[in-house]
Specification:
Largest sheet: 12 strands, antiparallel, barrel
Shape: globular
Strand content: over 45%
Structural class: mainly beta
CATH topology: Porin
Order of helices and strands: EEEEEEEEEEEEH
CATH architecture: Beta Barrel
Number of domains: 1
Distance between the termini: 35 Å
Strand order of the largest sheet: 1-2-3-4-5-6-7-8-9-10-11-12
């Protein structure tokens, strides 16, 4: 399944996640996460799916993802050369190129679950995500958002 998220209007802090045929799958209302805000993710029918929020961290930023069903993930960048991300309470692992916006999510067996890439040349933030059939779409979208937020914080602090 291929999905994309983007800002319909660059100045608004709202995103939409669309399927490959243009159907709205999720709506994201974003407070400024760089200022301790959060993202609230809802499905197309306004049912809450998750909340993504920045956690206090001394060295590297961490982001918590709380799902409406009680599950939660903690995403943090590892101190390594290859830009790996630790995702606690999950079987996923992420490797990311912070500058090209290429994210690869793998499962515990090393199989690729999703690849996300920022679309070049767009006026608004737009990310294309290719998700395998066996993956939870909401989880993958939340993880890609969290990793992109950590990358934004890391670029801001450099």
């Amino acid at each position: 399944m291929k999905v994309r998220y983007y800002k319909p209007k660059p100045m608004l802090q709202k995103y939409e996640v669309l399927s490959s045929d243009g159907q709205v799958l999720y709506k994201i209302k974003r407070a400024n996460i760089l200022m301790r805000g959060s993202w609230n993710i809802k499905d197309a029918y306004d049912n809450k799916i998750s909340k993504i929020s920045l956690c206090f961290a001394i060295l590297l930023p961490k982001i918590k993802i709380r799902f409406a069903d009680g599950r939660h993930f903690l995403v943090k960048r590892q101190l390594s050369i290859e830009n790996c991300y630790e995702i606690k309470n999950s079987d996923y692992k992420a490797i990311c190129d912070m500058y090209s916006h290429h994210i690869e999510l793998t499962d515990s067996n090393g199989l690729t679950i999703a690849i996300a890439e920022k679309t070049n040349g767009s006026w608004a933030d737009e990310v294309m995500i290719d998700i395998t059939q066996s993956a939870d779409t909401a989880e993958i979208i939340c993880l890609v958002f969290a990793i992109n937020a950590i990358n934004a914080l890391m670029r801001k602090n450099n």
